[in-house]
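Project standup — Tuesday

K.O.: blocked on the structure for the chain from last sprint. Re-posting the sequence here as requested.
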Amino acid sequence: MDPEYTPGKCNIGRRGRAMRLSTGVILIALSVILGLTLLGQVFWGVRLVLVLPVYIGLLAILEGSMSFCVLHAARGTYDLHEPKGFASNRSRTLNKVESVEWKRVDRRKALRMHFEAVAGAVVLAVLLALA
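H.V.: unblocked you, prediction finished:
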């Protein structure tokens, strides 16, 4: 069954979810490997730069697991059949969210997801820095 747009709950389809989940897992895995191997010998404060890729990876995982893209929320759009699996303005299946209230709900959800990703990234980056 194909998903349908639901404000604050679903604004991407299966392909978008799969791309975001795989991207997030790869970024987190690479960050952990980098933090434990190559950056293992440098000053712990330098290892805190891993907060950025970890944040992006966690945000991608959240987007994939929640069927909700924060970029679409910021733009006031949704795309349940993304041809490339990521938010693109050139997609022929891109739709605009018409209701101002729905846009507000989407932006609130996106802000919450950003906060969760930042919190998780800080915790994981500190753990990697101290490892």
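K.O.: great, moving the ticket to review. Strands lie at 77-78, 95-96. The CA atoms of residues 7 and 106 lie 6 Å apart.
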